[in-house]
Design goal:
Layout lengths: L4 H4 L8 H14 L9 H17 L2 H21 L12 H18 L4 H7 L5 E7 L1 H6 L1 E12 L22 E12 L8 E4 L14 E7 L5 E4 L2 E8 L1 H6 L1 E6 L5 E6 L8 E4 L9 E7 L7 H12 L3
Parallel strand pairs: 1-5, 7-11
Antiparallel strand pairs: 2-3, 4-5, 6-7, 8-9, 10-11
Helix pairs in contact: 2-3
The protein binds zinc ion.
The site of zinc ion has 8 residues, from loops.
């Protein structure tokens, strides 16, 4: 099975760029060849982590990757398995051929009514993500945002589209890929996963209305936390003795509150607890118990551990 870069880096599709970077650093450290000499499995893992990070580690590369993925999914949905040749050489040009294909169908079907045509064809919508901080989500913000989209060719004004007439600027496509920079107004009390629709900021069409730009807001989960399908999960490191014997741990919530949680005896790594009112927006926060990392043990601890080993623990 083909494992995508999000799966390789252990992040969900709605993770912020910062969260992807943090997970990448952690995994790269863990599987680094210096730390795993002569371990072929670790080396393979390290390579796939690098490859995944090249695809989604940088925000513009990620934007392109996500866009391609959406187009591929669309092709698969629309055409089933009949779409030949695989998706290997997929690029922005293929995205255009999809949309030109639709346009030409319309030209043929509706050629007796050209007035209808301009209302029927439309540029594709563009979906993208925008990372915001907790502070920006609370107070709202104006954020500069750049994306690449088709714009109507300046030379032929789109008139070469669907005709045999050549245009040296756009090659008869009627549009060219260009970069647009806009300011996005994030409303106050914005939520993770909230969608903003920016009318006519999607792909332009040589003969019709432009599509829209649909922005999905991503709220940075910050160190030790992650999003899982819109739900915020925070790791709570617990010493092995507390897991086994039970006890309490203190955590710092996303809103900066210190909260003490009961850890029942026999708690396992990965067990969860849902806290009400402690999420980013005052909603739910899921706590996941993890084993706190032991950097070094002292002589006394070593002696006691040796005794524990003797009694079978
Ligand atoms: Zn042109």
């Amino acid at each position: 099975m083909d494992v995508g870069p999000y799966e390789v880096l252990g992040v969900s599709k709605d993770a912020t760029d910062a969260e992807i970077k943090r997970n990448y650093r952690r995994l790269a450290r863990q599987y680094h060849p210096d730390r795993n000499p002569n371990d072929v499995a670790a080396e393979d893992r390290f390579k796939s982590i690098q490859t995944a990070y090249e695809k989604i580690g940088d925000s513009s590369a990620r934007q392109e990757f996500d866009q391609k993925k959406r187009m591929e999914d669309m092709f698969q949905r629309n055409r089933g398995n009949s779409f030949g040749g695989g998706f290997g050489g997929f690029d922005i040009g293929d995205m255009f051929s999809q949309f030109r294909g639709r346009g030409q169908e319309n030209v043929q079907n509706k050629s007796n009514n050209m007035n209808n045509l301009s209302q029927e064809v439309k540029g594709s919508d563009i979906e993208s993500g925008l990372d915001i901080s907790l502070e920006q989500s609370i107070n709202g913000a104006n954020i500069r945002f750049s994306h690449r989209r088709f714009k109507v060719c300046e030379n032929c004004k789109g008139s070469s589209f669907g005709t045999s007439k050549g245009c040296s600027n756009c090659g008869g496509k009627g549009v060219k890929t260009k970069s647009s920079t806009i300011t996005i107004k994030v409303p106050a009390n914005a939520k993770h996963g909230q969608l903003l629709r920016l009318k006519k900021m999607g792909h332009e069409h040589p003969q019709g209305e432009p599509g829209d730009l649909i922005i999905s807001l991503r709220l940075d989960a910050e160190e030790g936390r992650r999003w899982e399908n819109g739900r915020l999960v925070q790791e709570a490191p617990v010493p092995i003795t507390t897991l086994l014997l039970g006890g309490k741990v203190k955590i710092l919530t996303p809103l900066g509150k210190r909260v003490q949680i009961d850890v029942p005896a026999g708690t396992r790594v990965g067990d969860r607890r849902r806290l009400q009112g402690h999420g980013h927006d005052g909603g739910q926060l899921d706590i996941e118990f993890v084993l706190s990392e032991i950097i070094e043990i002292n002589d006394n601890q070593r002696k006691i551990l040796e005794q524990l080993r003797k009694v079978g623990l």
